[in-house]
Amino acid sequence: MKPSCFSVCDDDDRVSRVNVMILDGLTQSHFYRHFSHFKHLRNKYSSRWTLAPSSGDLLSELFNTHITESERPAETQSKLSAVLTLHPVIRRFGSKTAGLNSFLLTEQEMIKNNFPVKGGWGCEGFVCTQAEGPITDNSPLFGLDCEMCLTRVGLELTRVAVVDTRGHCVLNELVKPLNPIINYCTRFSGITQSMLAPVTTRLKDIQSKLLKLLPRDAVLVGHSLDNDLRVLNLIHPHVIDTSLLYRKENGQRFKLKLLAEVILKREIQSEEWTGHDPCEDALAALQLAQYFISKGASEVVECHLEDLWDMSPVSEDERDHVTSCAHHSSPPSFGHALYRSGQSALFLGRSADMSVSLTNQMCRRHHCSTDREVLCVFRRVVQCYSLSVLQFSSYSQTPATTRRQHLQQVHTHTHTHTHTSSYTIYTLHTHETVLSFCVCVFEMCERLREMCVLFVGPLSSETTEKQIHKLFRRCGRLRTVRILHNTHGVHAVVEFEHLEGAHLALEHLNEHHINNCHIKVRRPVHESCLDLDECLSERHTDALNDHMMYVCNLSCKRRHHDDLLQTFKEFGPVQHIMSPAKHAGRRSRHAFIKFEHAQSVRAAVSASLQIGNRKLSMCHALTPPHMTSWTHTNAITTEIGSETTEQRDECDERLMKKLDAKVGKVFRSLQKNCLSVVILPGEKNCGAVEYLGLCFIQIKQDDTLLDRLSSSVIG
Question: Hey, how many other C-beta atoms are within 10 angstroms of the C-beta on 258?
C-alpha cells in the first residue's frame, strides 16, 4: 500500500479529503466467505485490491513509510506551524483565503447544530424564506438577534433586530407572544411587562416583514443563530454562526461578549445596563463575521491565538528547527510530509501501538472503546480533518464464547499432529488470542477451498490420477488429484485453483467416460456447500466481474494471446487478456478476458468457439481480478466441533453485517470528492501461515448517482 495514495494535495480539485477505515481482524477470506453480508462494500466501492498482510500496527506503518520526492505533498505557503494546523478553526476552514460560500454552514452542519431545516424535526409550520438565489462574494449579510421570554409552551419571541451589511438597523420591534408569559427573563432580554402591554405586533407580522426585507441571496448572521431562527419559526438555508466561526475544541463556544471585546475591541452587554440590546448584538455578530471573512481563517488564528484561544504559538527557533530537520531527512516519512504540508490527520479507535511522536505531531488520536463511539465521534468531526483513519475493532476484540469453546478443542501441544480424510493437521503452541484467530481464519479459507473441490466416480480400479488429471485440466489448473480407495467404489477428489474450473467441470464432464465407466461429477455433500448456488449467483453479480469472462482448454504449447484476441474481438472491444504465469514450465491452459462492455461477455459465453482443433470452454468470471487463487497454499487445521462451528458462524455473520452497516454510515457522511479507503488488513502472525488482506477504494460522488449505480448493480 503506497502512502501517496492517501496524500491530499492542495492543487487536486478532485480529492478534497481522505478517509480510511480499518476493519481490524478481517482478511480477504472473510469478505468472500460472507460475501452476501457486505452489501455496502460490494456495491459502493468500484476498486478492490489484494493486500500483503501487515506485520505490525497498520497505522504506524502508514505514517512511518518513506516516500519519494515526487510523492511529497506540496508544502503550504502559510507560515502556520504544525500546532496551528491542528487548530479547530484551521481544520474546518483551511489555511487558504476562501470566498463567502466557504463560511456558510452546510445542511449537515445545520442539522447537527439544531438549526431549523425543511422537513426537520420540530419544524412543522415554520415559514421558509425565498432564498433561492445563488450565493456569491457580493451577497448581502444581515445581522440578526432576538430576545425571548418563557411562556406556558416554552420560549417565545419578544423582540427582534436586524442590521444590514453597512451596519444600519433596518428592523427593531417588540413582539407580543401568543401564550401567557411565565417569566420575562428581564435580566437578559431587558423586556418588562409594561413594555409589552401596548404592543400588538405578533410573530406572523414579523415573519412577513422578514420575507419582504431579505433578498433571495441574503445571508443571515448571528451568534447561536439556531435559537433565534427557532423562536422566529423561520427556515433560511444560508447562515453564518459566529459561535461556530470562532470555534473551540470539543464543541465549546465563545460568548459574544468576549468575542466583541477581543476582536472588535468593544464592550457590549454591559452589567450596568438592564438586559441585552438586540441591535448591538446583531451588529457585533455581523462585524465579527465580516472581519473573519476579510482576514481569512489563517490570519484570524495567528492574530488571536494567545488573546482569544489562550494558546502559545511556536517560536521561530522551533520552526527553523523543524524546517532544518525537514531538509536533512531523506527521504521523509509520509507522516512528516503530511505534517509539514499543513494537512491535519485524525485517528479514532482502540489502537495503543502508535509512537508518542506520531500521536503528538503527525496525527491527533482519540481513543474510542467501541465501534459505535468511533462512528459517533467521526460524524461530529467529519469535515475537520484532511485525513481521518477509523479503526473498527469489534471483530478482533470480541472474546466470543464460541471462540473460547472452540479453542478448548484445539491441541496446543508443540509439534502435535493429527490426520483427517483430506489433510494433515498441525497446531502450534502459541498465544490464545492468536491461535483463536488463526483457527477462525483457517476455517474461512477451508470453506472457500471446498467451493473448488469436486468428487468424481465411480471409477474402475485401473484408473490413475494421471488420467483424471488429463481429463479435468481442460477446465482449468488443478491443485490436487487424489484417488479414494476406502469408499464402496473407487472415487477421486479433484481440487481446482479457481472456482470457474470446478463450475465448468461440473457442467461439462458429468456422465463422461473413463475406462468404460460413466462418471458422475458432484460437489462435496457438506453443510458449507448447501448454499453454493446462492454464492455463485452472488459472484455473477459482483461488479468487478461484469466485464470479464473465463476461457479454458487452451493449448499449452503455443502463445495464445493473439489467438484469443482474434477470436473474441468480434463480440466487442477487448480491454485486456490476463494469462497466468507459466506452470511447471508450460503455459497455462486458461485465461481471463476483460471486455469494455458487459454485453460482450454475455454474447461470447453463449457462443460455441474453438481455436485450432480445440473447443473452448467458457463462463462468466467468478474470480475477482485481484485474486490469484481460491485456495490457500499453506494449511493449519484443528479438530472442529460442528456445534461450536455453527455458533461461531452465526456470531460472525452478525458481526459482518454490523461492520458493513458502519462502513455504509461512514460513507454516507463523507463529503463529495472524498477518497474513501477500506482496509481488511489480513493476518501475518499465525505461525508460518499468512492470510491476505483486501483494500477497497472509491471517490465519493453525489449520493443520487451512487444510489443509481448501486441499484443497477443489484438489479
Answer: 11
